[in-house]
Amino acid sequence: MDASTTPPAPAAVGPEELLSDPYAGYARLREAGPVHRVAGTDGLPAWLVTRYEDVRQALADPRLSLDKANAKPGGYRGLALPPALDANLLNMDPPDHTRVRRLVSRAFTPRRVALLREPVRRTADALLDAMAPLGRTDLIAAYAAPLPIAVICELLGVAEEDRPDFRSWTDALVVPDPARPERVKAAVGALLAFFARLLARKRAEPADDLLSAMIAVRDEEDRLSEDELMSLAFLILFAGYENTVHLIGNATLALLRNPAQLAALRAEPDRLGPAVEELARYDGPAPLAIRRFPTEDVIIGGVTVPAGETVLLSLAAAHRDPRRFPEPDRLDLGRDATGHLALGHGIHYCLGAPLARLETEIALGALVERFPRLELDVPADRLEWRPSMRTRGLLALPVRY
After folding, report:
1. pTM
2. Of the N and C termini of the chain, which has fewer Cβ atoms inside 10 Å?
3. Cα separation of 147 and 356, whole Å?
4. CA–CA dist 235, 360 (Å, integer)
């Protein structure tokens, strides 16, 4: 972050373009200047950071708070949720963030994630078995969405018969319908009621699952509060489902639109691990990192951002920055994409990153192995994307095989 204080570049790109053609829009902003004054996803003002080095530094800057208490009135603040769903790691700074992350990390261990490898593969195979006779399907509804739901429920310990329609709840929150505001209220109420019942059941009948472990976890007589516990369960469901379904969907589309890269992956399936990193860089599920609020005036990219105003860090713009990734608009599964920011950076690096990688690697590997003639069933320009700046994901992905 520079020591100068040049004025922000004018935002010559509106939200409509960032929805219809986000990478072109973010490229125009990135080349026009590193920081822009923009309207947030709900129309309220924010500062948008577009270049890789600035975004990476800002992600780890302790002066950029996630706590809404540090936000000035009148700026973009993100999702408005009740305390029972809002007391999670995405709204916390140290020392609370340090305490809660340490407690949750004890339950969210590499061993627990590794134990999910076989269940993830079984679920993927079962979904592909159901798809096989059809010859064509919507890959989001038939595969990319139900796989993460099954994995998160397995992780939390939600019995199959008790798994409600998480997708409708998360859709209502992430892409609210202005004409039907009651859908958001209904989704929040349903989530609160679901987690209250689930926590009560796990207290009465603990098992070998993440939620039971989170209830039991202690650290020098410290423990998660009721709001923290419910909020973390919500975060694991919301982030674990929402991001993974779109990572799988976007990655599949990227491969189908780049047949030479898909053929190379089929020829060398052991390249799946590095391929997932490049696919996450190329078209990740989160165009923006979680909003931040400076606790003091900070200089980002030569621009002074006043304390309390909202900072939006554009991962989509950073991942296509040619200063960091040569020929960034080209999918290259041989590229060293380490250093991408799709899973965060610094103390807020995604706690579920190993699970997201595991799911995506297994999902793509099983799909390309099972269906060697997989292809789009509609022209790519007819695909519809979710009308959201918060997430980058397809409404449907029609394929034939």
Report:
1. 0.92
2. N
3. 11
4. 19
